[in-house]
C-alpha cells in the first residue's frame, strides 16, 4: 500500500491542516506499526528522544497511549497529568511553559481547556506540537484513530453512512471527525437533543462545501440505516453551570432496545470515557468496537511520532 504523498508537517494542530491523501498516508504508516504496537515485534527508532506530555485537563487514553507509543518506539517521556502540579498554578503563561518544555524534549503533546491553545503553543515551541485536545475545538489524533478504525472495520471511509450522536455542541472529537468526514464526502446524520446539536458554524461550513447532512433527535430511529454509530458523552465540564447541565443530563442512551432495528453490520464507536450513554449490555453485542478503537490509538500515535521526528520504520 505505497503512497506517493510526503508528510512534511511541523505540528499536528487541526485535522483541517490535512488533505485526504495525507490522512491516508498516516493510516498506512499506522498499519505498519501494528506488530510493534501489539508487542509482537520491537524497535528503537526513537531511542534517546523525549516526549513531553503536558496535560492541563484529565486524560486516560490520550496521555497513556502517547506514552506507550513513544516507549514502543524506544523513546522516553516526561510530563504532568494535571495543571495543579505545574507552574501554571503559579500564574505562568502557556507561552512560557511551552518555550521552556520544548527545550527539554524533542516533541510536545498538549491538552488544554482553551480552544486555540495548541495553535498558540505551536508558535512558541521549538519542537513539533501535537494537539491532544483544545477545549471544545479540535482533537486531531483522536480523529485519525477514528478514521483508522472505520477503515479497518469497513474497508473504506467514504462509502459509509455515519451517525454522530451525543454532545455535538461541546464535543471536540465530533468537531474534528465531522471536518474529516466532510473531506471524504461521507454521509452524516447528527443525532442529538436540540440544545446539544452541532454548532451553526460547523453546519455552515458543511453547507458551503456542498456537503449534505441530516439531523435527528432519536438514536433508535436514526440507527436503522447506519453503518457506523459514533456516540459521545455529555461534556459536563464545558457547560456554563451545573443547572444547564442537569437540564440535559441523561437525555440519551444506547441500549439493546435502541439497537433493535440496526443493520447486522453496524459498528458502534465511542472516543471514551463512557459515562452512561452506552449501556454495558451493548459491550457483548457484535456492534461494539469502542475498546478496539481505543487500542488503535497506539499505532496511530506511533505513526505520528515517527513522521514528525522524521524517523521512519
Ligand atoms: C475525549 C476528549 O478528551 O475529548 N477523550 C479522548 O481523548 N478519548 C472524549 C471525551 O472526553 O468525552
Q: What's the structural blueprint in terms of helices and strands?
A:
Elements lengths: L19 H18 L12 E6 L5 H12 L3 E5 L13 H11 L2 E6 L4 H8 L4 E6 L5 H15 L6 E5 L6 H13 L2 E5 L8 H9 L4 E4 L2 H4 L5 E4 L10 H7 L18 E3 L20 H6 L1 H12 L5
Parallel strand pairs: 1-2, 1-3, 3-4, 5-6, 5-8, 6-7, 8-9
Helix pairs in contact: 1-5, 1-11, 2-11, 3-4, 5-6, 5-11
The site of N-carbamoyl-L-aspartate (NCD) has 12 residues, from helix 2 and helix 6.
Observed structural traits:
313 residues; alpha/beta; Rossmann fold; 2 domains; five-stranded parallel β-sheet; four-stranded parallel β-sheet; 11 helices; 9 strands; globular; binds N-carbamoyl-L-aspartate
- Ligand kinds: N-carbamoyl-L-aspartate
The shape is globular
And the CATH topology of the largest domain?
Answer: Rossmann fold
Integer-rounded radius of gyration: 19 Å
Beta-strand share of residues? 5-15%
Give the structural class. alpha/beta
Report the mean per-residue pLDDT as an integer.
96
Amino acid at each position: 500500500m505505497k503512497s506517493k504523498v510526503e508528510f512534511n508537517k511541523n505540528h499536528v494542530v487541526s485535522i483541517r491542516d490535512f488533505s485526504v491523501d495525507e490522512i491516508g498516508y498516516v493510516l498506512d504508516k499506522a498499519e505498519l506499526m501494528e506488530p510493534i504496537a501489539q508487542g509482537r515485534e520491537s524497535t528503537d527508532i526513537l531511542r534517546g528522544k523525549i516526549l513531553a506530555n503536558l496535560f492541563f485537563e484529565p486524560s486516560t487514553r490520550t496521555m497513556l497511549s502517547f506514552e506507550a507509543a513513544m516507549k514502543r518506539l524506544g523513546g522516553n517521556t516526561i510530563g504532568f497529568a494535571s495543571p495543579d502540579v505545574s507552574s501554571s498554578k503559579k500564574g505562568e503563561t502557556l507561552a512560557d511553559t511551552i518555550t521552556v518544555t520544548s527545550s527539554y524534549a524533542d516533541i510536545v503533546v498538549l491538552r488544554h481547556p482553551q480552544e486555540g491553545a495548541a495553535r498558540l503553543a505551536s508558535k512558541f515551541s521549538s519542537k513539533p506540537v501535537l494537539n491532544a485536545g483544545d477545549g471544545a475545538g479540535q482533537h486531531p489524533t483522536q480523529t485519525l484513530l477514528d478514521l483508522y478504525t472505520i477503515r479497518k472495520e469497513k474497508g473504506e471511509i467514504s462509502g459509509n453512512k455515519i451517525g454522530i450522536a451525543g454532545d455535538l455542541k461541546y464535543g471536540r472529537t465530533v468537531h474534528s471527525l465531522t471536518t474529516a468526514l466532510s473531506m471524504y464526502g461521507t454521509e452524516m446524520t447528527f443525532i442529538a437533543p436540540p440544545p446539544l446539536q452541532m454548532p451553526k458554524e460547523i453546519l455552515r461550513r458543511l453547507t458551503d462545501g456542498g456537503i449534505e447532512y441530516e439531523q435527528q433527535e432519536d438514536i433508535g430511529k436514526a440507527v436503522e440505516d447506519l453503518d457506523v454509530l459514533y456516540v459521545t458523552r455529555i461534556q459536563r465540564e464545558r457547560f456554563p453551570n451545573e443547572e444547564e447541565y442537569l437540564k440535559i443530563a441523561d437525555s440519551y442512551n444506547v441500549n439493546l432496545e435502541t439497537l433493535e432495528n440496526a443493520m447486522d453490520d453496524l459498528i458502534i464507536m465511542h472516543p471514551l470515557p463512557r459515562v452512561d450513554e452506552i449501556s454495558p449490555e451493548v459491550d457483548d453485542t457484535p456492534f461494539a468496537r469502542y475498546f478496539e478503537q481505543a487500542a488503535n490509538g497506539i499505532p496511530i500515535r506511533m505513526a505520528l511520532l515517527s513522521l514528525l521526528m522524521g524517523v521512519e520504520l
